[in-house]
Design goal:
The protein has 249 residues and is α/β, with parallel strands linked by helices. The protein is built from seven helices and ten strands.
């Protein structure tokens, strides 16, 4: 009988934002894998990430398996690939011993998630493994709820941009229609602020980090002073609207 790998979205950090289906999947799995960042030598850095902290609200620590992923390795491709291979082999070993392995990922497993790469690797290492996902609430949804920003109305498009792709991608999106959401922009906060000003979309924009956690910060984008922000910062630049009800229908 084939083993099963389930990617479970556990939301942006607030344990109350894990879906009932997500909780059930975590509890039903034989083991729950959580990704952890590597130390300089490639070993477990010991830091408890958001996914692990959220998971521990619903399952015992004995059921959780920490697996090192190259989450913070961008410059050394060889080192990153080696870390990915090692992580895939570790999860493949778990699948050989257990019927169902859940992988907890912040946000949604199909939106800029580590799970996508893991599932691809497992497909090569353990052919026949059944792969499923359980959707999770994203940071943009949580920030919209906490800040009161409306993501879309009527026929407006919604554009999601990872600023790690470069500020030019963000500038192009801001000069287009609809709401623009930017992920992973903390290290390029100065460039983001400049792009918002140049496009005339600074006034209504909002950014947030550590949503649902003790260190939560939600502020107007106009407060951006160019200083670096936490890596997992989220920006919402709402569409230009005329204030009339149903104006975009």
């Amino acid at each position: 009988m084939s083993s099963k790998l389930i990617g479970v979205g556990v939301g942006p950090g607030d344990p109350e934002l894990v879906t009932v289906k997500g909780v059930n999947a975590l509890r039903a799995a034989d083991v729950v894998v959580v990704p952890v960042m590597a130390a300089a030598d490639g070993t477990d850095g010991g830091e408890r990430g958001r996914a692990e902290a959220t998971v521990l609200h619903y399952v015992s620590e004995q059921k959780v398996v920490r697996v090192v992923f190259a989450l913070n390795e961008r410059s050394d491709r060889e080192r990153r690939e080696a870390a990915w291979d090692a992580a895939g082999a570790r999860v493949a070993g778990l699948l050989a011993r257990h019927g169902t392995v859940a992988f907890a990922t912040i946000g949604d497993p199909n939106v800029y998630s580590t799970f996508t790469y893991l599932a691809h690797t497992i497909g090569e290492l353990v052919p026949g493994t059944v792969v499923e996902t359980v959707p999770g609430i994203t940071a943009m949804q949580d920030l919209a709820a906490r800040s009161g920003a409306v993501l879309t109305e009527g026929t407006e498009p919604l554009t999601l941009v990872p600023v790690t792709a470069g500020s030019g991608v963000l500038k192009d999106a801001l000069n287009g229609p609809g709401t623009v959401v930017a992920y992973k922009f903390g290290r390029q906060a100065a460039e983001v602020a400049e792009a918002l000003r140049d496009s005339g979309r600074l006034e209504d924009a909002v950014w947030g980090s550590a949503l649902g956690l003790d260190a939560e910060s939600i502020r107007p984008a106009a407060d951006l002073d160019g200083e670096p922000l936490p890596y997992l910062s989220t920006l919402i630049a709402p569409a230009r609207r005329d204030g009339t009800r149903g104006g975009k229908l």
